[in-house]
Amino acid sequence: MINRRIHKKLITAAVITGCFFMFACENDVNEVRALGKRKPGVDEGRKIESYLSVGGHMRAKLIAPLMLSFQGDSARKAEFPKSLHVDFYNDSLVIESQLGAKYGRYLEGENKVFLKDSVVAFNIKGDTLFAKELYWDQSLGQFYTDKEVTISQRTPRQKLIGLKGIRCNQDLSNITLFDLKPGSFFIVPDSTSTAKDTSKTVIK
Questions:
Q1: May I ask which residue range the UniProt record assigns to the signal sequence (predicted)?
Q2: Taking CA atoms, which of 52, 70, 161, 182 is between 20 and 30 Å from 202?
């Protein structure tokens, strides 16, 4: 019964807000007293847990120690100045990839999250992406950037550096790298290996 009530509350919040971020936070007495000192139009939340669902299925969970929500004449946005972490789920609610950064900014009107500073994403196959800046497009379920990015793949074993960025699915499949840096390398897999990889990497 408790789980049903929680689920009902989450659905209600999603309908009311019409956006990704449904969050829970904790505030002590000192934080409540400090509300009057904060800038108008800026709300602060701590210990954030946010959920993204598509077609009734949960697709991602975001956690962050601090969120600043800005409401003004321009588009609403939220900032995560003290890091954030995202788990991405498949249809069976199994985590298939994860994403982390020291800073994030969510723009509600664009349905995108901008990340910077030590951005790292990795999947269950052992592939890892490193970037200084990265966008997460929630509508398309993709990552992209026009900044330098490095991706290490396990099958086949290779390390690739895109000088002008990357575009790929949020599970790090269907990768397109732009302007491959000299010195990137491929390691041809053992011909006796039976491992299969259905993803693809395109160089442009």
A1: 1-24
A2: 52
